[in-house]
Amino acid sequence: MADKHAGPTGSARRRASASLQQLTARPRIAQLITRIAPRSVRTRTTLAACIGVAAVLLAASAAVLLLLRVNLERSVEAGAREQAQVVGRLASDGRLPNPVPLDHGTDFIQVTDAGGTVVAASQNLAGRPALTPAGTSDGHDSFDLDTLGDEHHQRVTTLTADTPTGTVTIRVGASLHTADTAEDLTTAALAALSGLLVVTVGVVTWRATGRALRPVEAIRAEVAAIGDRDLDRRVPEPGSDDEIARLARTMNGMLDRLEAAGVRQRRFIADASHELRSPLAVLRTQLEVAHTHPDPDVRADMVAGALQDTDRLQSLATDLLLLARLDATGHDGPREDIDLTELVRTTVEARSGQRPAVTLDLTGRAAVTGNPMWLGRLLTNLLDNAQRHARTTVTVRLAFDPAAGQAVIDVTNDGPAVDPAEREKVFERFTRLDDARSRDDGGTGLGLPIARDITTIHGGTLTIEDTSDGCTFRARLPAHRNPDPGTG
């Protein structure tokens, strides 16, 4: 039983081994192809141009040679047929000579009767038996012409004619030596010209590609040399107006944005460190005094002040975290349909017990698509800023602009106006005007920048507008009209 199963088991093992060898050989072949494949764009472009031109020239040369061969063979065949017709007329008139004279370009002539007997022939076939077809080649009968004593590439034309003694068959052999010679010369000329043209195309493509890629290499080298502390460097821009020049301008624009982002980041870190250092130092001092002071009342005051600074630090950390989320999330935050009118109403009503009081003016209903938490933070920051600077009143107005397709939110306070030269400055991070730098009254300097970032992420704008009743912050958001409840 063991011998019976040995054969199939060994065969299966051999097949498995062969399959494994094939699977192992495929990655090796792929690795070999990868190694020998050209890596540079210049080499690949030159090779592709040469291969393309060579393929076109090969097809064109084959077509030219085919047409030349067909035309030459037709000319030889036409001459042989004309010679056969002349011999046929002589045979029909009973004036067929023997031997039959050969015309220029004709190798032999043989005339046989219906029984296959040679009745006349050219001098070189005198005494030879009748030619018989040995087969068919290219639609023509082929004959064994070794009896002529030399190899001949010929076209044999066969024609029948009626004579006084019966029907005869006339075979005229025409030499294709001229056609062969012309074809050989043409092939050699086309090969030489094609080779020269391929080499010329390769050289021109190599030089042109190298010249075209020289600015790209300069851009690559400059970008490779730019470090995180060299963002003020720029790549060279060619004087042309082609794709490479546009690439260089795009790279320089990207470097401009990177440099500006680096400057903003360093400034942000410096401002954040400064803002955190002051309350931390005060908090440490208060805790040290509370820890060592013997008077319980003074200790309680110090602890209360420390709690206030802790709240301020917590608020600052929350704002910094939100800014980081806004910078990281950008336009990819969660979106949903929001009743902006209801959001404004609930946000204002939540401040009903605060002073100064907030007056709400809703002249229309609007709905937006966005992040409800962020839009709520937008309104909260604007209201915090307005209540901080207002003397007696704060007004919130919501209207819908059908022409622009926008919801317009105006938060107005009757406090001092913002100087036009400082209206953009207040939206910079950690920026507070001189009258708002008090630790008790001033904010963290992040509320308005956060509000503008939220507005920008939602495709809107936040600006400071001139109004007669105080300072107004106007937020415009893409929206659509939301019908009043009960209007159907």
Topology:
Layout: H1 2-36, H2 41-92, E1 106-112, E2 118-121, E3 133-137, E4 140-143, E5 154-163, E6 166-175, H3 177-225, H4 243-292, H5 296-329, E7 336-339, H6 340-349, E8 358-362, E9 366-370, H7 372-389, E10 394-401, E11 406-413, H8 447-457, E12 461-467, E13 470-478, E14 480-481
Parallel strand pairs: 8-10
Antiparallel strand pairs: 1-2, 1-6, 3-4, 5-6, 7-9, 9-14, 10-11, 11-13, 12-13
Helix pairs in contact: 2-3, 4-5, 5-8, 6-7, 7-8
Question: Please, could you describe this protein's structure?
Answer:
This protein has 488 residues and is of the alpha+beta class. The protein has three domains: 197 residues, no CATH class; 80 residues, Helix Hairpins; 141 residues, Heat Shock Protein 90 (2-Layer Sandwich). The protein has eight helices and 14 strands. The strands form four sheets. Strands 8-10-11-13-12 form a five-stranded mixed sheet. A four-stranded antiparallel sheet has the order 2-1-6-5, with helices on one face. Helix 2 packs antiparallel against helix 3 and helix 5 packs parallel to helix 8. The radius of gyration is 50 Å and the shape is rod-shaped. It starts with a helix and ends in a 7-residue tail after the last strand. The N terminus is likely disordered.
Note the main attributes of this structure.
Helix Hairpins, 14 strands, alpha+beta, four-stranded antiparallel β-sheet, Heat Shock Protein 90, disordered N terminus, 53% helix, five-stranded mixed β-sheet, rod-shaped, 488 residues, 3 domains
